[in-house]
Amino acid sequence: MKLQTFDHEETILRNIKDGTAVSLERALLVLSGLKTEEEIRSYQHKIDTIYSRLLKKFNSRSLSDRSEPPLYLHRPIAKCLFEYLWISKPKRFGEYFLLADVIDAQLTPDVNHLVGTCVGLTSLYSVLGVRAGLNLSLLVASDHLLSRLRVGQQTIDIDHTDPQGFDCHKSEGFYEFSLLALTANILNSRGLRNESNGKFTAAKADYQKAILVNPEYANACNNRGNMRFRDKDIEGAIADYTQAIRLNPCFCEAYCNRGMAKQWLGLYDEARQDYQMAMNSNSEYSDARKCLLVLDGIEYN
User: Fold this and answer.
1) For residue 299, what pLDDT is reported?
2) Does residue 66 surpass a pLDDT of 60?
3) C-alpha closest to that of 88 among 108, 71, 73
4) Do 132 and 109 meet the contact criterion of CB atoms below 8 Å apart?
5) Could you tell me if 295 and 282 are in contact, meaning their C-beta atoms sit under 8 angstroms apart?
6) What is the rounded CA–CA span in Å between residue 279 and residue 255?
7) Cα(135)–Cα(155) distance, rounded to whole angstroms?
8) In this structure, are 172 and 245 located in the same domain?
9) pTM of the model
10) Angle between helices 118-131 and 74-88 (to 10 degrees)
11) Would the pLDDT of 221 be above 70?
């Protein structure tokens, strides 16, 4: 019996929101657009293939194949997984963010084939890490995504877009979430793709779903605000930008967007304050400087 992707997706997202146990692997495959149980099983078999190749690397390093490895093996297993993925595809950073696309790219024989974005690469690492029994979470910033491995009281941060990214010490400005929050990152990425393709209603729906499963996700709040601004719901847009800033006080883009919304309403002093806050958060953020110049009636060259 075939299942409609929309209904299946809505059920999984509702379960995540309600705190019902959900398989990360299955959730990410459903969000990839797989519409039948046969398609899901097919991609689970592909994950089996990647994982079996990974286990061979474990064995070559005398690492145990266990569902719950002892704590002292977590770091070497995590590092071996990281190194295996980089060695197998050394030009990993690409455009795919959906897990199914990333799996196909990982299994492509061409060693130079690009694999995925930070969202896609983190998704693949996460489902493999869960199979290996690792204690993983997410670190989310306004423009990037990392994995965090916990080994007892120790934390190890992992950047999947950098071949030297294991234990990378880049976590300043990042917020930690559970692995299931990956669904929100994927929905946000899907919204951005829909937005770039002119599918604004679908984009707004994706941002709304991202907020549903992770209300603390500042990016999705900011992006939904952009859709509301486009629809001339300026007060709604300001509310979303304000929420994004509350969640991430250093979110320069949200400050700038809120400034533009306030400027549209004629609240020039408040708009100027937001543009200044954007530049205070990131002195290299040129959009805020341009907006200030326009607000002050100065032509920007």
Assistant:
1) 45
2) no
3) 108
4) no
5) no
6) 9
7) 10
8) no
9) 0.92
10) 130
11) yes
- pLDDT given for residue 256 in this prediction: 97
For the record, the structure tokens of 213 come out as 């499963």
The residue segments making up the domain with residue 236 are: 198-295
215 in the same domain as 171: no
Are residues 52 and 42 in contact, defined by beta-carbon separation less than 8 angstroms? no
Q: Structure tokens of 77?
A: 């297993």
- Distance, in Å, from the CA atom of 192 to the CA atom of 204, rounded to the nearest integer, reads 9
Going by C-alpha positions, the residue among 62, 20, 26, 66 that lies closest to residue 43 is: 26
What is the side-by-side order of every strand in the sheet holding 145-151? 154-158, 145-151, 136-140, 175-177
CATH number, domain of 17, equals: 3.10.620
Partners of 154 in beta bridges: 151
Residue type for position 192:
L
Q: What is the spatial distance between Cα 249 and Cα 230, in angstroms, rounded to a whole number?
A: 24
Tokens of 122: 């983190």
Type of residue at 280: N
% of the chain at pLDDT higher than 70: 93
- Classify residue 208 by burial, with Cβ atoms within 10 Å: 0-12, 13-18, 19+: middle
Q: Is the pLDDT of residue 64 over 70?
A: no
Q: What angle do CA 188, 193, 136 make, to 5 degrees?
A: 35
Which H helix or E strand runs over 200? helix 200-213
Question: What is the phi-psi region of residue 162: left when phi exceeds 0, alpha when psi lies from -120 to 50, beta otherwise?
Answer: beta
Does any domain span residue 193? no
CB 123 within 8 A of CB 186: yes
pLDDT of res. 62: 45
Question: In the chain, how many domains are there?
Answer: 2
User: What was the pLDDT predicted at 145?
Assistant: 96
Residues 244 and 165 in one domain: no
* DSSP at 284: T
Q: Is residue 206 in some structural domain? A: yes
**How many CA atoms, within 13 angstroms, populate the side-chain half-sphere of residue 240?**
24
pLDDT at 35 (0 to 100): 87
Which residue, 117, 142, 177, sits at the end of a domain?
Answer: 177
